[in-house]
Prior knowledge:
Distance between the termini of chain B: 29 Å
Order of helices and strands of chain B: HHEEHHHHHHHHHHHEEHHHHHHH
Largest interface: A-B, 32 and 34 residues
Helix content of chain C: 55-70%
Oligomer: heterotrimer
Radius of gyration of chain C: 20 Å
Amino acid sequence: MIFNIPFIAVVAMIFIGLFAVLFKRNLIKIVLGISIIESGVNLFLITLGYREGGVAPIYTSAPSDAITNTPGSMVLPVPQALTLTSIVIGVAVLALMLSLVMHIYKQYGTLNVRKIRRLKE
Amino acid sequence: MNLIDILIQHSPPLIVAVPLFSAFLIPLVSRINEKVRNAFALVMMSITGFFIALLASDVFANGPRIYVFGAKDLAIPVVRILFEVDSLSVFMAIVTFILVFVSLVYSWSFMKKENDGLDKYYTLILLLVTSTLGMELTGDIFNFFVFLEISCISSCALIAFWVHKAEALEAAFKYIVISSIGALFVLFAIGIFYAQYNALNIATLSNVLQFTFLDKIALVLLVVVLGMKAGLVPMHMWLPDSYGQAPPSVTIVIIGATQASLYGAFRIISTIYGNFFNSTDLSVVNFVLNTNAIGWVIIILAILTILIGVVMALIQTDFRRLIGFVAVAEIGYIFLGMGVRLASKYVESVGNVPTAIVFPAYGSIALQGSIFHIINDCLDISLLFLVAGAIYYATRETSLDEMSGLARKMKYTTVFFLIGLLAVSGVPPMNGFSSKLLIYESTYQLNPIISIIAILASIMLLAVFVKVFYSAFLGPKISKFENVEEVPKSMLIGMGVIACIIIIFGLFPNMIIHYLVEPAANALINNAQYISTVLGGV
Amino acid sequence: MSEMSKIVRTIANVSFPLITIFGLYVIAHGHLTPGGGFQGGAVVASGLIMLLVAYGSTWAFERIKEKRLTSLESLGAVWFIGVAFLGLFVSGIFFKNFLVGLKLFDNITFFGDIPVVGSTLANINTAGVLPLMNFAVGLKVIAGLFAVVLVMAYASSLKEWKK
């Protein structure tokens, strides 16, 4: 049961993030909601790689069966690489979204998403 | 091994690496001169096109080809990233190349009036090209996700290129919120795949997939998100906004990125889940109803897309937003073909014992019509967007209420608009007729109502565009359009290239289907060849 | 933004070299300890942004030309792809790690040793092309993140942006 707590945290973070994106009216709160969803998905990817009793996957001071019994008693390293890529992409998307929010504030004068609706049907 | 063989062998990574390299060289090159920078971008795209042509000639003749990054041989189990190029990938790469080349030629004069920021424009367009070509050539699903995110970021920055227009910023913000949440759900589905099967390679996944409950969740997430990126209803809301507010030379490259997401959806349905949806082996008898259910869901969404696209296009007054809604409707035709193929699978049985699983012949015709419609739809909608851009360049007007009587001054643009109008509505002898005829014929045999709705939508499209043509080009002269003159030559060359290709495809559809479309459609459903290229005859 | 008080500026001056050295350490040891190009680059960029906050964005934007930061960023990216192409020219496969096991004049390897599993002393001379690519990515991240925050801070202080 204790090893399922990170997965419960993942689901909770994704739902909180979706709630913020769908129901909040301030543009910056929507951007923060996307950041929370991204943290949740990154946590999901890292938790997949856990093996019970494993150490960090570094060759220095590695346990003796690291090469003969891959991955041996090391935690899986591939999800860590996937998570790192996802964090970098998240930083770039966050920077772009915040620049757009600054420009929108200059043009529209407000950060209320109900009022930024010039593109109606 | 002469030079051509070496070039063909190394062309998959070079097709992606040459635009990436030149995208980062553009700020350094632009310190010299502006014309040098424009010419440099064109030359680098031509080199990429040369590599695509070489690779296409090899893949259509010899079958799929792989390229492993960083090692000479492939060790099984597969741990390296690899590019796997089969006929459908090269077909999409050819489509992307035509769109990008025309866009670069067109934006030579169209963007000349901008004061600054053109360095970043060219860098971002080359990055968008890199990511689109990477999405189409890759054989690894996490690599597909990375390229998907790169295309999302670059196209958002390009949609908001005219920062002094408030609507463009609003469209770009909507686009990036929806796209980034969608891409995070694709990452979630990739995590589900990795957790169960410890593999990220598409061929390995399609070999070992068992259709568990988690796999069904992953299928729903992937098809919904990639359908959203392609413009399927009810996730289509970003498409008319973004296509309508971006600069027109950018819009046609974003159309290429949309088609690459559609290619991703087809690849996931047909290859990763191919052992359950595409195979005629008797062991998947229990999954025939699943295949039919997914086919019918896609058919219903496609019909809704066609209807909503056409009906919303009837009431628009903004020119580029109207063409955006027509683009939504055309995506519906493409999904209709794939859905008809999946929904038509049935089981032949003698008594109560199943003897064979059969895909009827009209299923493969539907798939061929759908793939042929990808290239036709790209060309037609691009020509209409370029015409809208030419009108904006000459008159600074975007609303149809203000335009009138432009045919007197802009003769070539009128002719190009006529060609685009006939092509989009499916009137012979343009190319839209051939692909739509294939789709009508095959969907009629599944269920006549679907075909009737599709034909009616085409007729309504003709009505929409005749109204636009009459009000914008014919009609009385207006005094404020006294000084309007024809657009510069590079824009005319760009539109002319697409118009020529449309007419050639319309006059010789049999050759195009035999040489380009049939190998692509067969490669999509031939799961075993895709797997055995990587895993070596398992 | 205007500058902050003298205490803040002094502490920023004192701690900026320490942060930079730590960030460059994280970049350079990316193949041995957790870290690498992006992580170390983000640390150094945070140090630069701390200086920006302490001294004010108007002062900084007059002295740092944004075109030079863009050129530095392009240089980092061109370096990365250039090393990948170098793998193609030297040994025939794109992105190949061609420095591993490659002995230059009399048995000196340039990042080319093969690590021994389980040893307690880390060898920095290992892992081939990866430290070079770490430097390229670190340079790009430093220039990129600092340019983004610099332009954002300057733009929010312009008079026509305040309502």
